[in-house]
Amino acid sequence: MKATFLYGAGDVRVESAPDPTILEPTDAIVRVVRACVCGSDLHPYHSQPAGEQGIRMGHELIGVVEETGREVRSVRKGDFVIAPFAFQDNTCVYCREGLQTSCLHGGWYGTPEVPGLQAEYARIPLADGSLVTVPDVDPDAVPESLLRSLLTLSDVYLTGYHAAHAGLVTSGSTVTVIGDGAVGLSAVLAASQLGAERIILMGRHDSRLALGRAWGATDLVRERGAEGIAAVKDLTGGEGTPIVLEAVGLLPAYEQAFGIVRPGGIISRVGVPQYEDAPVGFGSLFGKNARLAGGPAPVRAYIDAALPTVLAGTIDPGQVFDQSVPLDDIAAGYAAMNDRTALKVIVAP
């Protein structure tokens, strides 16, 4: 089969790889219908040291089950499924508490043991806990728009939802979202779905801001840094906002967040931090009695509730995909996201 490998910064290749096989009785083999490039894939794309051994990339897919291990009970051959970006048993103590990305027996795709999902086929460990069946949908007979929205439930939309959920967004909330990437825009949509009354979106790209506006952003702020903080405070009578959703993962975005958050407020981070030390002292969080929340989204905790809203057309989060490439051309998809000519790239094997 074909699969995506990263050999070093900027060096993405599609090469032949062995077809996956059942290694554990709890595994499933899935034929990939759609995969995609994630913003977090760009972190190793920027920084991975060159090497002779490529790393299999990707952690999001929708597909069709081809084979199951003898202990798999909840899915069977022919099922159309969504695979959340982490695998989990969905039964351990942390999974039962809605923290599936901390599963005692789970893990991440893109390792030598569990290769990435930007491929024609994938092995899914702990299939009963990791795969969600999409009922009554034939992936070969539905609009591409539905496939795109279903794919967002593997990561991007529900990561945005996690930001809003962990940030305690409720009816009437005032929220600032930092970042107009796919996750930031998903956070806008999720905050709107949760009833936020005012959503301030911080970003710089016209087409992305337009989608944010369509999804519920009430105010747009293009400035960054100290100017961006001042602009949000001007919009809020000098107070800042009680909820800040940070969807970038870079230190300047976090610094904006604690500059914007209102005393007693909460910062919810879902952008994967590209820094080790986050200020939490008097001048950032402590002096404001502000709280810090967020982390890797436990997608499996939210997907059962979100799936019917997508199938009913209540939300259409697949609009974050603005470019499509075949698997053979995935390197161009990485480049497009890297140079910001694409918001998010979907991949059709």
Walk me through what this model shows.
The protein has 349 residues and is of the alpha/beta class. It folds into two domains: 2-155 and 298-348, Medium-chain alcohol dehydrogenases, catalytic domain (Quinone Oxidoreductase, Chain A, domain 1, Alpha-Beta Complex); 157-294, NAD(P)-binding Rossmann-like Domain (Rossmann fold, 3-Layer(aba) Sandwich). Helices cover 28% and strands 25% of the residues. Strands 3, 5, 6, 9, 10, 17 and 18 form a seven-stranded mixed beta sheet that branches. The chain has a six-stranded parallel beta sheet with strand order 13-12-11-14-15-16, with helices on both faces. Strand 1 (2-8) and strand 2 (11-16) form a beta hairpin. The mean pLDDT is 97.
Rg of Cα set = 20 Å
Give the end-to-end Cα distance, rounded to a whole number of Å. 10 Å
The number of domains: 2
Strand content: 15-25%
CATH topology of the largest domain: Quinone Oxidoreductase, Chain A, domain 1
Query: What's the average pLDDT?
Result: 97
By DSSP (H or I, 4+ residues per run), the number of helices equals: 11
Return the string of H and E elements: EEEHEEEEHEEHEHHEHEHEHEHEEHEHE
CATH architectural type of the largest domain: Alpha-Beta Complex
Overall form:
globular
Helix fraction bin:
25-40%
Biggest sheet: strands, sense, closure? 7 strands, mixed
Ranges where pLDDT stays below 50 over 5 or more residues in a row are: none
Structural class: alpha/beta
Number of strands: 18
